[in-house]
Amino acid sequence: MIYSVKGTLIHIESGFAVVECGGIGYKVNTTLTTQKELKLNSTVMLYTYMNVREDAVELFGFYTKGELSTFKLLISVSGVGPKVALAILSELSSETIALSVSSGDYKTLTRASGVGPKLAQRIVLELKDKIKGFATASDDMVVSKGSVIADTGNISKAVGALAVLGYSAADVTPILSKLDPTLSVEQLIGLTLKQMG
Fold first, then answer.
1. What is the pLDDT of residues 163-187, one digit of tens each?
2. Helix %, strand %, coil % for the chain, to 5?
3. What percent of the chain has pLDDT over 70?
C-alpha cells in the first residue's frame, strides 16, 4: 500500500494529477477540492489510497487526511465505488458530508454526479451505523477527559460529524469546549479541523 506521494506536480487534468517522484510519474485520481490546492511545477504531497482490481491498479490522492478518511468511509458503503466517492468529494466538503450523515440529510448527497436518492439514503444509513458506537454521556452532554461539557446541541452534532471523519471524542471535545457553542455546526467543525492541523 502506498501511504503518500511527494514530488513535483508535472501535469494536471480534470479528475487526475501526475506527481513525479524519483523520475517516475504517478497518475493520481483526485477530487476538485484537492486540485484547487495544487500548483503546477511545485512540490506537492498527497495522501493516497491504492485500489487494486482484477483489471486495474489505481491510485487516489487527497490533499488532507480528513478527505482521505472520508473517501475510505464512502467506499465502504455497498454500491459506492472510488469514482462515485470522488464525485461526492468533488461536490461536497468532508465537513458537509459528515454533517449530512450525522443529521440524516441524504438530499445534500444527491448533488453529486451519479448519486441518486436511493444511494444517498444507503450512504447515510450505513455510515450512521459505523458511528453508532460513538458514545456521548447523553444527548446534551459531552464527556471530555473526566469533565462533562454541557452544550446547546451544535457541539454534540459537531462531535458526531467529526466521528464520521475518524476523530475520537477525546481528541475533539477539548477544542470544541473552547469554541462559542452558538456557532453553526459547520463552523465548529471547520475551526476544530484547523486547530487539529
1. 777 777 777 878 888 888 888 888 8
2. 45, 25, 30
3. 87
Separation CA 74–CA 134 (nearest Å): 18
Instruction: Give Cα 65 to chain centroid, integer Å.
Output: 8
What residue ranges define each of the domains in the chain, with the CATH number in brackets? 4-62 (2.40.50.140), 65-130 (1.10.150.20), 141-196 (1.10.8)
The residues near 29 (Cβ < 8 Å, ≥ 6 apart) are 15, 16, 58, 59, 60, 61, 82, 86
> Quick check: helix, strand or coil at residue 43?
strand
Q: Please state the pTM of the whole predicted model.
A: 0.69
* pLDDT in the model for residue 139: 33
Query: In which region does residue 149 sit, left (phi positive, over 0), alpha (psi from -120 to 50) or beta (all else)?
Result: beta
pLDDT tens per residue, range 50-85 = 999 899 899 999 999 889 988 999 999 999 999 999
Q: 96 Cβ partners below 8 Å, 6+ apart? A: 108, 186
Grid coordinates standing for 22?
Answer: 524519483
